[in-house]
Amino acid sequence: MPDLHFDLLVQHLAETIAAARIADTAIETDIVPNLSHLQRCHPKDVRKLLTPDRLFAERTLVDVEVLIETVERTILKGTTYETVHDTSPENVSAAYWTRTERDSQTKDLYRALPVLHDLRERLQAIHDLLVARRVLEQLNAEI
Known about the structure:
This protein is elongated. Helix 2 (about 40-50) runs antiparallel to helix 3. The chain is built from four helices and two strands; from the N terminus they run H-H-H-E-E-H. By secondary structure, the protein is mainly alpha-helical.
């Protein structure tokens, strides 16, 4: 059976473990302190799943996705948009634009969001590789 580039898989696993460590820090410093007390339990539970022995379980991927949705909703609630009009003769661009304002808590959540997205993408890639490996094993068994 052809190998699914074992070295490449090991590299992906190592990078995902590193991304989980970074996400753990982001959850601890930027997410948990900036959520309501009722919302803090789930991120704390996600942190427990970011250890190498639990990281690649299907539940971890699902819980990271739920956390991303929570953070995105909280960011939307804490973001205001203001239309700024500028019709002065010196303005050579559009006569108006939208200014985005976020409080410090929302800025912290916004800073952590790409870290969570990165972890989710890496976990999904690992799961996809494992599914591909199982499919390949099934195809080889049928031959």
